Structures are given as structure tokens and as C-alpha cells.
């Protein structure tokens, strides 16, 4: 994963490099063409000068200077030359070409203008040449300067792009920061992010509205659970107090006392069920705070010390093998306690005499994991699938309750962004594994 | 001790009152917040049992009002709303305890006792049980000057039974008192039986404990001699 601003800067750099490379590839061609055009127009200008001179003073002064009947002149550095000689040609010539000339045993590339003039019925060939060496070397120099200039430009624009992107994307960073570590819409920072980019403004606004809506939904759910709680638990409360008062009254017949106790038991089941469902609803509407930091093995030790008397009584070994410990941050200790209590207690209940319930803690790569395994009766696959549902179909008529304890455990795990996995084999045992999130 | 029961469900406040009267409390009832507000202003109460779900009043405001007029009554919140933040708010406002409905009357009694012990500084009370002496403050049990080694849960269990002396407590009531925060309807009555069995074993290693008695089919109790 890469940050957006880095991506943008890299993309800019890449596109600049590609365009520059193309430009540098085409540059020699362009420079050559421009240079040649310049040279050509110079040559044409010189030609006009020479023709003007000839028409003024005649061809003789040129021809007379040499016995061969031709005229040639080049400057000391051999950059330019002019030659004029008589030719016997039927056609006229007027073109510019590149040829190599041997001058004083030195071969030099020239751009040469060839032009025929007719004076007094005689044809003369006028050649005006300009050396390309100077052009080539100047081209090299220009090329060098341009390359250095472009590299500088690329470096400077890359740095300014990086800086500009950072400033430009700062609101986006603020928005993502606001979302970091949010477990509850009420902890979302509602102050708008200041930005002049309309897209960011819209994003921020939409997020704020979304959070507000979710917050309102949570509030509504909280209100509903409060009301349901009140309506359902008040009558249970009345019944319970009445039965308890009956039970403590003197001269109570022991048979009636037993029946009242039975009724209280049934009532207690109803109460636990209602409370369990409300408990799940409250966790799901995020009414529990996540502000505790604690070590997991210490929680497990506390739970084991409470369950071990029951395990020992049943002839079951309940053992902890803590390989590593983990400090859980921003969690709810009492919820985590309930979750592990339910699962460990469940394991002890489903294991028969001589069995073992083993609790292992260790890191799986970078995440902490708790495995609770027993060698009890195990369960078929169909039962695992419905294990965490609130009202699973009972597999065993002898089983007490509706097994809502595991549904609660699952809700608490989800709330803490933990992953529970169950593996089981009939007759061999069951294993629950709790994978913790990384601390943020 | 004077107790005001603020509860709009009349049949519930009657049951609480009849239970507390048997424990020699003087009980007064208020069915609405207004009535409660007036009664708190006029009378001196040691305890106010306050239901937060009153039709005409936010129960938490009653605590604020009472504190404003200098009432020294201890507030125990009893509510069926069970919202997590109500508990925090209530305790922040100076309520002394918080008891979610439905609760066992024995639990209410032990909570009132605990608050009373703190309030009247009778924390260092020692309770005699046959040849044993229970120190409430240090949470220790002695037998002839020798300490009986009990786990935290065993002591809690025994203390609960002792504070509700000569009253039978059902396994559920005991379980709820000790593991009230754990919700599991596969609840095992065996849990309490095992703890009582271990407790008895430890007691009997020091001296016989006939006062810790089983009532078949119902539960356990600590009998007075």
C-alpha cells in the first residue's frame, strides 16, 4: 500500500521523465533542421551578394586572378569558401547539398550551394560552402545545456510537486485521521475539516452526516433496549420478590417450599434469558466503554481459579499453558472476563471425568491467540454452524438452557474485533481459538 | 433505620417493604418522583431505595436535590433500565450502590448492610459463628486464633450467607451474588454445591460447622444458635 501523495508525486515524475526522454530523442533532429535552414538562408544571402558583385564589376576580375579560369576563396579556418568556374553544361543548377571537400589535405564536411549563372552566353558554376564542423559542435553544446536544464527542472518540479501534494492532500489526511481508531460514532470529531477542495469538503460532510445518523440509530436502539428492559424486567422483579418473601415466611411447608424454589428457578431462567438478550443488544449498540488495558493471562488465571473447584470435583484437569502474554489495550475487561468464563465453563461442562481442558496462549505471527481445547464429547459439523446463534436448535435434550452463553461470547469477540474459530470432532473434543486484533 | 422506597410499581414496593419490615426497618413508600422529593425534604431517612424509571421524574435529579438540601440519606439505585451509563452517572452523583432489577431481596439486604457498615463506621465488626469468628473488614475467618484459608469466592459465599443469617438462600441467589456479572443460562447449580462442599471441608478441618446447613431442594442457610 502506498500513500496517495507519494503515488501522485511518482506519477508526475514518471510522466515528466517519459516526456523529457521523448523530447531529448527528437531534439537532435529538430536542432539539425533549424541549423540547416539557417545555414541555407545564409548561403542564399551570400549568393545574392556575389551575384550583385558580379553584376557590378563583371566576371573578369574573378577569372583574371587565376590562370585556370576559375576562382576560389576560403577563409583561414576553412569555415567557408566560394568558388566560381566555367562549366560546359546544358542545364542550370540550383541546389544545396552536403559534400566532403578536400582542402589542403584535410577532408571537411560542407553544406554547399550550387548555382549556375550565365554571363555573356558562358555558363559559370558558383559554389558557396559553409563548414558543418562548427554547426556540429554548437549542436553538441546546445544539447548539453538543454539536458542539464531539463534535469534541473525535473528535480525542482518533483520537489515542489511533493510539497504541493502534501499541502493539497492535508485535509484528506485529517479526514482519515478522524476515522482512525473510531469504535463508536460518538467519538467521531464533528468539527469540519477546513479545506478549499470541494471533493474533500463533500467527503468530510458526508462522513459527518453518516456518523450523525449512525449515532442517532445507536441512541434509538439504546432507548429501545432501556424501555424493553424496564417493561420486561419489572414484572419479573415483582414476581421474584413475592416468591422470595413467601419462601422466607415462617411455618413454610417443605413441599411448598420446594415448589416455590422450582418456580424461582424457572423465573431465574426467564430473567437470565431476557438479560442475555438485552446484554447482547447493549454490546451491539456499543453502550460499553473500551477503556481498559490489562494482561490476558491475568484474566485467565482469575477465571481458572474460580472454575477449578468445579473441575476438580468432576475429576477434570483444567490447565493453563501460558507461553506468551498480551496486554490488551482499549478493551472492556469485564466483557472479556465474561467471554472467557463462558467458554471455559462450557468446556468443563462438556468434558467428562478424567478429561482435560487446556488453555494455551501464544502469538500466531504478530497476533495473539488463545486456544481453549477439551477432550470431551465434541460435536457434529451441523452443530458448529449454529453454535453461536442466539437460539440454536437443541442437539441434546439433556442439555440445559439455550446455550446463549456462546452467543454472548461471540458478540463480545466481535465487539473487540476478535476472531473465534471452532474445530470439533465427535468423541474427540472441541477447540475454541480466539485471535486477538493488533493493538492500535 | 428509616428507609424510603421510591418505586412506581406498587406491588414491588410492597414486597420490598414487607421484607425490610421483617428486618426491623421503618419503611416509607413514594410512588412518584414528586412525592419522593417532598418526603425527602421533610423527613430524615437513612436510606433511599431509588428506582430510576419514574414516570414523572428523572430519578438522578432526586439525588441532586437531596444533596442540595443537605440530606445525608444513602441512595441505593434499583433500576430495570440497566443502561450502563446510568450506573456510572448514579455513582458519580453520590449514590452508594446500584442494584439492577430483578434482584434477590437477600441481595438488597446485604447491600444495605454493606452501606450501613461504611456509613456508621462499624466496619470492624466481628461475627461469631460457633467456634469461628468472621472479620468483615479484613475479610478473614479465624478459628481459635488460627486463620482459615479461604479463597475470595468462598469468603464471599460465606459472608453472604452470614449476613442473611437464618434465612434460606437458593443456589441461584448465591450464584447471582458471586457471579452476577456472568450471564449463562446453562447455569449449573453444581457450581454452588462444589464451593459449599469445599468450604465445609476447610471449616471442618478446624472445627465442626453445623451452623452451615443445607435445606434439601431449596438451598443453604446459616442458622442462629
Q: Characterize the largest beta sheet of chain B: strand count, sense, and whether it forms a barrel.
A: 5 strands, parallel
Biggest chain-to-chain interface with counts: A-B, 58 and 49 residues
Report the span from N to C terminus of chain A. Answer: 18 Å
Order of helices and strands of chain B: EHEHEHEHEHEEEEHEHHEE
Distance between the termini of chain B: 25 Å
Order of helices and strands of chain A: HHEEEEEHHHHEHEEHEEHHEE
Physical arrangement of strands within the biggest beta sheet of chain B: 2-1-3-4-5
The CATH superfamily of the largest domain in chain B is Response regulator
Q: Provide the β-strand percentage band of chain A.
A: 15-25%
Protein structure class of chain A: alpha+beta
Count the beta strands of chain A. Answer: 12
The major β-sheet of chain A equals: 5 strands, antiparallel
Poorly predicted segments of chain B: none
> How much helicity do the residues of chain A have?
40-55%
Task: Please tell me what the overall shape of chain B is.
Answer: elongated
Strand content of chain B: 15-25%
Q: Judging by the overall fold, what is the CATH architecture of the largest domain in chain B?
A: 3-Layer(aba) Sandwich
Mean pLDDT value of chain A? 85
User: How does the helix and strand content of chain B classify structurally?
Assistant: alpha/beta
**Strand tally of chain B:** 12
Rg on CA atoms of chain A, Å = 48 Å
